[in-house]
Design brief:
By secondary structure, the chain is of the alpha/beta class. The protein contains ten helices and eight strands. The strands form two sheets. Strands 2-6-1-7-8 form a five-stranded parallel β-sheet. The structure holds cytidine-5'-monophosphate (C5P).
Length: 220
Amino acid sequence: SEVPVICIDGPTASGKGTLAAEVARLLGYHYLDSGSLYRVTGLAARRAGLEANAANEAQIAALAAALPLQFTEGKVLLAGEDVSDDIRTEAAGMDASRVSALPAVREALQDLQHRFRRLPGLVADGRDMGTVIFPDAALKVFLTAGAAQRAERRHKQLISKGISTTLDSLRSDLEARDARDSSRSVAPLKPAQDARHLDNSQLSIEHSIDTVLNWWQQVQ
Ligand code: C5P
């Protein structure tokens, strides 16, 4: 494809979403939050009473392939219902991680992800953007941050939304999620061979944005 893509992959709460959305905005590119697709699939499965396991894999994949999804003004609509808040909880993150380990579900969501690749360009964030979905991307960033920093950031985010949690439970949740995401057999969380590594534990968001924009200029 002639359409340029920037991939930003990394573990839970590493700051991928904020960074990718901001880079997309500054470049005037489209933005794909691939995690939201797994989160919505997890929610749809839960509502259909389907536990995320191999026995239900085909049924959950069928749900994923036909999600009545719309993205408008930063909101995610499922069959017209605004589920933006429902998919952001920690429980929804865990559900997403479980359905995302099912190979047929990952396959069912591939076309939808590829359709986000439109001119003038795309910034995509997730776990396997650079390794599986857009392997020909001109720039691949693997974004990390220490577990303590990630737990703290997620804590702030949730508190600001009025959701109460403790730092300890968040940290163990995100470590459990990363362990599952890294050890699964299909599309595990790992840097692409040609990824550039960015540890933003001690970096401001502005600094991370500048770094990615500089790298983007270098590869043009
Ligand atoms: O990025 P986010 O935390 O919203 O993703 C939720 C879950 O969806 C992740 O823990 C991961 O299991 C799954 N995911 C994935 N592949 C992606 C994006 C997200 O498996 N490209």
